[in-house]
Amino acid sequence: MAQILIEKGYDVFGMVRGQANPKIRMIQEETPKLELVEGDLQDLSSLIAAVEQVQPDEVYNLGAISFVALSFRQAELTADITGLGVLRMLEAVRIVGGAENRIRFYQASSSEMFGKVRETPQTEMTPFHPRSPYGAAKVFGHYITVNYRESYDLFATSGICFNHESPRRGLEFVTRKVTNGVARIKLGLQEKITLGNLDAARDWGFAGDFCEAMWLMLQQDTPEDFVIATGETHTIGELLALAFAAAGIDDWKPLVESDPRFTRPAEVDILTGDASKARAKLGWKPKVDFPELVRMMVASDLEIEAGDPSRRP
Ligand code: G4F
Fold first, then answer.
1. H/E element holding 15?
2. At 213, which helix (H) or strand (E)?
């Protein structure tokens, strides 16, 4: 997101928490023009101070505990950061933005809110049925954003984003776990990839495309919520086949195993988004398709894993 906004000519400030945040070095190397400010989604006064310091025109709240599996083990923390953190950020935006509501606000809502899906494909009108503490916290974040828009006339919007991936994806998420595992197998650094539920299916898109949609949402005349998705669903089997093919490995099935350690107490089996509203009103459509996304991630992981071991994730 920062990279896209910098390319558009914005002065961009990223909020970081903690004293010795391990991601700061990577962020500074990848986006040197990004300025960092301190703030913590659990601490309203720190958010007010950050927003006062920056005096932003637009705030993009992409901050959360975003790993669904972790949310089962740290449910209260997830509710506090992923759920209540949105309320605190909205309060900071409302207070600092003054009576004329100078600051526009984007909330990263999630397709995890659809959970045990009530209809396919999912639209802005599909009822929610979250299947994890993460999904439940995102539902709160979504509705409190709608509520601040309706109560205080804030320019507050939610993008209901389906899974969006890139070479910068964390290794704990299934796409990157697969592409990084494939690269390591190819280079003789690892023998197998151990996953959880191999039957899951997702509507996976490229994060860069999705960030463009987030920006477009804040450039409209009126704030509205949008589903952001590719409309295509792929299985983990397809992800594996494409990733191994990108590394030139044919006989991959014996290289993948499933372990209950990686399954979840409740699962979201399948997601398919309908982004017709975004297409019609924002003129948005994804540019990178699924095979290209997987090839991009495998190529990046092959380069990382073949390089200096101290730079490996
Ligand atoms: O890559 P995942 O961990 O992503 P998940 O749970 O769909 O959540 C991501 O997308 C959401 C949008 O829909 C975001 F809101 C959220 O923050 C995050 O970015 O898992 C995808 C699927 C799941 O069904 C999971 O059970 O892959 C399955 N899976 C199977 N084996 C695995 C594994 N997931 C992970 N992370 N690791 C495995 O070994």
1. strand 13-16
2. helix 207-218
Which residues 6+ apart lie within 8 Å of 183 measured at CB? 247, 298, 301, 302, 304, 305
The answer to whether residue 119 is catalytic is: no
DSSP labels, 9-62 = T---EEEE-SSS-TTHHHHHHH-TT-EEEE--TT-HHHHHHHHHHH--SEEEE-
Predicted local confidence at residue 244, as pLDDT: 98
Kindly write down the DSSP assignment for every residue of 273-292, as one continuous string: B--HHIIIII-----S-HHH
Q: Does the structure show a pLDDT above 70 at 311?
A: no
| Contact between 272 and 233 (Cβ < 8 Å) | yes
Residue 264 Cβ inside 6 Å of ligand 1? The answer reads: yes
**106 annotated active-site:** no
Give the pLDDT band (50/70/90) at residue 218: very high
Alpha-carbon span 23 to 36, nearest angstrom = 12
pLDDT (tens digit, 9 = 90+) per residue, 8-38?
999 999 999 987 888 898 888 999 999 999 9
Quote the pTM value.
0.97
**Structure confidence by residue, pLDDT tens digits, 240-273:** 999 999 999 999 999 999 999 999 999 999 999 9
Is residue 114 within 8 A of residue 162, CB to CB? The reply is: no
In this structure, which residue's CA is closest to atom 31 in ligand 1?
A: 196
Among 106, 134, 212, 300, the one annotated catalytic: 134
Tell me if 197 CB under 6 Å of ligand 1.
yes
Q: Is 112 in the pocket of ligand 1 (CB under 6 A)?
A: yes
